[in-house]
Amino acid sequence: MKYELYIARRYLQSKRKTGFISLISYISIGGVIVGVAALIIVLSVMNGFEQEVRSRFLSADSHIRVQTFHDNGIEHIGALQNQVKNLPHVMASTPYIQEKALIKSKAGQSGVVVRGIAIESAQDIIALDRNMVFGSLNLGITREQDGKDLPGIVIGFELAKNLQVIVGDEIVLLSLAGIEKYGDLPFSKRFRITGYFETGLVEFDGRIAYVSVASAQELFKLQNRLTGLWIQLDDYEKSEKVAQQLETKLGYPYKVYTWRDLNPNLFAWMQIEKWGAFIVLSLIIMVAAFNIVSTLIMLTIEKQSEIGILKSMGATQTGIKRVFMYQGLLIGITGTLVGVLLGTGFCLAQAQWHFFSIPGDVYIINYLPIATQPLDVLLIAIASTVITTLSAIYPARKAARLDPISTIRFK
Questions:
Q1: Is the Cβ–Cβ distance between 351 and 328 less than 8 Å?
Q2: What is residue 308's predicted lDDT score, i.e. its pLDDT?
Q3: In the chain, N or C: fewer CB atoms in 10 Å?
Q4: What whole-number distance in Å separates Cα of residue 44 and Cα of residue 272?
């Protein structure tokens, strides 16, 4: 062991004369521990919420959408599917219709986004059956006690509450396409509610309704046209790469959107919050770094005579500087390692046992979500070690510049 490291380690241990200084050293280590653990826990919680929101979003939407530039619709959807299906990472595709409408019940009305889907192929894209909370996923013709044959419609749970409807009730959809495109009166069609779905996202549960493709084409007067194609990949992270390949292959008039393009503000805001939390909580480590500076300066004053003796014995300025740099490094590494262990330990325990609960009626889940990313932990550990090491530079230089003669003379 180098003598610089040996002396630095000894200085951290409590002695009668330097007990107070050693106490401040331990407080500095505690500050680093708290800062590192807090950073890991908070970023893991943010990652957990982001992961939960993303999974619920992707359970109700596709990884990629293919539409036309002017939303004029696509007639030969089979040819488009044949072009898409052989691309790498493409797992499934299904045609869809998406238009705005007004939904009316006896108790109220609301704006709604109507999605026309083919249930068999759409089930490979969206987990609508898994999100069903009541009723059935039946978009075909249904008949109730009133004797009317009406097509089925599945709506979000929040939308059902707003309209005060239950399964079996009759509602009316009024298409806004006639007004927007032709300046005509709105087209209307009656449906029967066959079920509710719930994703946990108000954006979907409060404004989405599913009908069959045939019913949507009739309601919006689309003849044989469809809005576009939903595409599912084997990995949602590859959506940008596949989207570029699709745009190159398909060309005009097709436009390709990824799941990030559909909700850019949501995921961008989550990323900004994550970096904001990282910066703010790093201030805890900065406070610990200032404690390290004051500790080492006090130690320099306390150990002037020892520094003078070391210099008279042949220790160089570089060697003295290393003693105090090593001390700052030891404080930083010790605090960082313990903080990493505490932070990751808490996260693993919460992910396994969910002992911290949150109100399920307020949030989309009833427990605190945790997703610890190794890269985040590594960056936190590096940042903590660098900050604490840099804090030792000034005291180390001050100690190295002490005159050995004057320090020994006034001992």
A1: no
A2: 75
A3: N
A4: 15
Cis amide prior to 253 (ω within 30 degrees)? yes
Task: Identify which of 361, 369, 370 has the alpha carbon closest to the alpha carbon of residue 200.
Answer: 361
The mean pLDDT values, 10 residues at a time, for the chain of 411 residues are 72 58 78 91 90 87 91 85 89 93 93 93 89 91 79 94 93 78 73 92 90 94 91 92 92 90 79 82 83 82 74 79 86 93 95 83 76 93 90 85 63 51
Q: What is the C-alpha to C-alpha distance for residues 13 and 223, in angstroms, rounded to an integer?
A: 84
Q: Which residues, other chains included, contact 144 with Cβ-Cβ below 8 Å and sequence gap of 6+? A: 168, 192
User: What pLDDT was estimated at residue 18?
Assistant: 54
| CB 308, CB 407: distance < 8 Å | yes
What's the rounded Cα separation, in Å, for the pair 265 and 113?
20
pLDDT at site 139: 94
Show Cβ contacts of residue 362 under 8 Å, excluding neighbours closer than 6 positions. Answer: none
Alpha helices, DSSP H, located in 90-238: 119-122, 128-131, 157-163, 177, 202-205, 213-219
Dig out the tokens for 316 from the structure.
């160089």
Query: For the whole model, what pTM was predicted?
Result: 0.79
Place of tokens 């749970």: 157
Let me know: does 126 contact 134? Beta carbons within 8 Å: no
Helices marked H in 132-180: 157-163, 177
